[in-house]
Amino acid sequence: MSIQTLIEQATIPSESGSVSSSPFDVDSFDAAVMSTYGRFPLALERGAGCRVWDTQGREYLDFVAGIATCTLGHAHPAMVEAVTRQIQKLHHVSNLYYIPEQGELAKWIIQHSCADRVFFCNSGAEANEAAIKLARKYAHTVLDIEKPIILTANASFHGRTLATITATAQPKYQKHFDPLVPGFHYVNYNDISAVEAAISELDEGDYRVAAILIEPLQGEGGVRPGDVAYFQKLRQICDETGVLLIFDEVQVGMGRSGKLWGYEHLGVEPDIFTSAKGLGGGIPIGAMMSKKFCDVFQPGEHASTFGGNPFVCGVALAVCQTLERENILQNVEARGEQLRNGLKAIAAKYPNYIAEVRGWGLINGLELQADIQLTAADIVNAAIKEGVLLVPAGPKVVRFVPPLIVTEAEIDTALAAVEEAIATFTK
């Protein structure tokens, strides 16, 4: 079954009608579910390709994709087939046993990256936790560091667990959750002098910098690509000092950038890197990959009950193979260039409102001028009315992360809707 067939079927009313039999009850939802999200006023119930429908039957172009997660869009035939096949075969067993699907997925990742070893978990935060633990053990057992420090970048985002919000150098995520986890120090992104100063200043007594945890492109921090010269100098510093270089590829990896991994844009290889989001195309899975020399975990030192089970690995492998078989990275590059050019044309039309357009592949940001009251959330709400779903990346940046299968026509439709949304604030 093709994507187009799925979309056509999704628009055909069922016997009970094309919308839910009863209105969605926001009040009962809010009474039952913790208010940990500032939700937009939509209740989505089905999707096909790059489109989703709400409970009232209204159609939207989905340029959020679960926040850079639905790699193949919604109800992709390869995923439907993989989900059906695997759930009928075996969905979960303990990691106390060998899991063939896990081994096949690990081998695919290794064959398509600089990794030698893979650990599977359930999310990006868990993958980054695993990387932090691995770096700390390596520091103690190999580098002989009594109190290891991990450098991270201001405006970064690495997850919501206590260790990863500590690594996330944004106070808004840390407020009221102290005491935070010790052993982290923050430096400015794309500022090599700050890294050099920190390594020198923190080398005191039992303390030493053991690792640098950084995103090749900052996603939540405003869609800010890494500078090539900066990352190449980071690699040189790490080679000279023994400090581990860790890349958080949770958002930018798995083809989102137009290359399979973000580090490919920078001309360097990390010692450790993490993945989640797009790896499973929307099925919860995370992974921490490392070079062989720093794979120091022993049995019992790290684990995950659900991590790498047959179901998630079987589906993730289908996503990976589909990316490769259908040459989807080529589409990401072409559609990303089309999207950026279109956004730049809009920016040129509204220079008093738009400051910059930036990004890689199909992760792009439209930054609003700092001196206007208009916010990214304002644009997102206006775009919803025009039938396009977008997501902020901070207060002033609108993020565009559609499924990697997005078409030329869908990009044009989204651009027209975004321009109309922006125009409503200029009249």
From TrEMBL:
TM region positions: none
Annotated binding of N(2)-acetyl-L-ornithine, by residue: R160, S304
Cofactor: pyridoxal 5'-phosphate
Reaction catalysis annotation: N(2)-acetyl-L-ornithine + 2-oxoglutarate = N-acetyl-L-glutamate 5-semialdehyde + L-glutamate
Cellular localization per UniProt: Cytoplasm
Pfam families per UniProt: Aminotran_3
GO biological process: L-arginine biosynthetic process
InterPro entries, A to Z: AcOrn/SuccOrn_fam, Aminotrans_3, Aminotrans_3_PPA_site, Class-III_PLP-dep_AT, PyrdxlP-dep_Trfase, PyrdxlP-dep_Trfase_major, PyrdxlP-dep_Trfase_small
Pathway: Amino-acid biosynthesis; L-arginine biosynthesis; N(2)-acetyl-L-ornithine from L-glutamate: step 4/4
UniProt GO cellular component terms: cytoplasm
Positions of modified residues (N6-(pyridoxal phosphate)lysine): K277
Remarks, miscellaneous: May also have succinyldiaminopimelate aminotransferase activity, thus carrying out the corresponding step in lysine biosynthesis.
NCBIfam families, per database record: argD (TIGR00707), PRK01278.1 (NF002325)
Family, similarity comment: Belongs to the class-III pyridoxal-phosphate-dependent aminotransferase family. ArgD subfamily.
Protein name (database record): Acetylornithine aminotransferase
Originating organism: Nostoc minutum NIES-26
Lineage: Bacteria, Bacillati, Cyanobacteriota, Cyanophyceae, Nostocales
